[in-house]
User: Which sequence fits this backbone?
């Protein structure tokens, strides 16, 4: 729509046949609509644009400014603040924080996408970075600090089989990390595998142990579904927590952890796996072991059952037992 209300003023936007955009603000919708019609007529007839206000003048905003602006508007202080900060810094490094947002065009965005693909980023990872860049630039555009938006080409995301680690793969990973002397990642693997914690949750869970019947539990606060959970833990997770060893490095963001994990994936030919695969592994084992899908949802901290239903095909298929249930009632 080329006429819209902005605050208490009506603004008309017109793009001429050469692709140049013009804008003018009015006190009423009728005035804005009339000016839009006059501009379109003048452009078609080859006449001067009436009272033209060209948008080709740059605001001088840099990409760094645009990212900071969007961060303040949308993400700072939110639950995923650190996740967005990581993506913002990655975008800064890729384009340069001093680059003018006017200079970032579709070709530059496409080249950035191709670099991420070449570096092994999945479609989902690329799309999440694109979302940060596009939202930052769109905010600048809506604030009249940018004259033209580039295209942001979303990538297809795999909808195929969920990847999870087999028991043999898990043992090989643990043995390799132990042989390399990487005890921190060795412990992080065990905790991630047996709890399904997200990488960010590994850093903030309460290591105070709580008695849960004949088992122990650990408290995970401030999960993505806005609920806290006292999660039962396995014996080997209990041993790690009880030893006092701290999990205070993000396995995907700490530079040392990231290098070791990349080396391990290459060494064991696990290029199709990421750290998040441990979360899939935990959920898959719970479902395969017969846990009710709704209990799995609560364990994993999913806000929507649709997320958990991705694992439903792994559940035991013994539907014949349904007859025994019905027979016992009849």
Assistant:
């Amino acid at each position: 729509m080329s006429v819209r209300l902005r605050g208490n003023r009506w603004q008309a936007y017109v793009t001429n046949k050469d692709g140049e955009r013009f804008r003018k603000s009015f006190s009423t919708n009728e005035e804005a609509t009339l000016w839009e019609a006059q501009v379109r007529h003048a452009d078609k007839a080859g006449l001067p644009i009436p009272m033209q206000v060209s948008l080709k003048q740059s605001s001088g905003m840099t990409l760094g400014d645009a990212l900071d602006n969007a961060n303040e508007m949308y993400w700072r202080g939110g639950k995923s603040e650190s996740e967005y900060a990581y993506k913002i810094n990655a975008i800064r490094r890729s384009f340069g924080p001093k680059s003018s947002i006017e200079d970032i065009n579709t070709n530059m965005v496409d080249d950035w996408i191709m670099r991420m693909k070449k570096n092994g980023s999945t479609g989902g990872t690329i799309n999440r970075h694109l979302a940060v860049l596009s939202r930052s630039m769109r905010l600048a555009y809506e604030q009249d600090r940018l004259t033209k938006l580039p295209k942001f080409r979303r990538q297809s995301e795999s909808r195929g089989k969920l990847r999870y680690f087999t028991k043999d793969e898990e043992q090989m990973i643990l043995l390799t990390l132990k042989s390399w002397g990487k005890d921190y990642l060795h412990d992080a693997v065990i905790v991630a595998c047996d709890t399904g914690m997200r990488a960010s949750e590994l850093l903030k869970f309460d290591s105070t142990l709580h008695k849960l019947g004949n088992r122990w539990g650990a408290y995970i606060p401030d999960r993505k579904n806005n609920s806290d959970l006292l999660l039962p833990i396995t014996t080997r997770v209990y041993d790690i927590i009880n030893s006092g060893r701290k999990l205070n490095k993000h396995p995907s963001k700490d530079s040392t952890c990231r290098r070791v994990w990349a080396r391990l994936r290459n060494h064991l030919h696990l290029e199709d796996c990421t750290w998040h695969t441990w979360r899939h592994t935990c959920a898959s084992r719970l479902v395969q072991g017969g846990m009710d899908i709704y209990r799995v949802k609560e364990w994993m901290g999913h806000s929507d059952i649709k997320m958990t239903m991705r694992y439903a095909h792994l559940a035991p298929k013994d539907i014949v037992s349904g007859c025994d249930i019905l027979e016992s009632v009849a």
